[in-house]
TrEMBL record:
Keyword terms, alphabetized: Heme, Iron, Metal-binding, Transport
Keyword Metal-binding: yes
PANTHER family reported in the protein's UniProt record: TWO-ON-TWO HEMOGLOBIN-3
Pfam families in alphabetical order: Bac_globin
Official protein name in the record: Globin
Organism: Chryseosolibacter indicus
The family this protein is said to belong to: Belongs to the truncated hemoglobin family. Group II subfamily.
Amino acid sequence: MEEVTTYEKLGEENLKLLIERFYDLVFSDQRISHLFKTDKELIKEKQRLFLTQFLGGPPLYSQRYGHPQMRARHMPHPITEDDAVAWLSCMSSAISSLNISESLKDELFKRFVPTAMFMVNTETTSE
C-alpha cells in the first residue's frame, strides 16, 4: 500500500489557500518583506509549483524550472537566522488558519523548519 503524501492530505485548494495567506503575511511583515522584490503573483506561482513537489505531489517546479536548487537560488539574497524565524512565523500563522487537522498542521510545519534554516546564508549582525 502506498503512503499518502502530505500534498495529497493537504489537497490543492488548501495549498493555494496556504500560499495566499502566507504571502499576505510575508508582504506585510516588516522583518522580511524586503526579501521579496519580484512580482508577487510570480512568487506565489513559483511557490505553488515548488510546494506541490516538496510535499510529495507532481514535480511541477522541476518540469518548469529544472532542479529546485533552493539554497543556490536564494544565495543572492542575504538571509539571516532571524529572517528564517520570521518566515517560519508567517508560515506557522498561515498553516494555523487552515481548516485541516492539528496533526496535518504539525506535519506541514515540521517539513518547513529544516528547509527555512537551510536557507540561512548570512550571520545576524547586532546593531
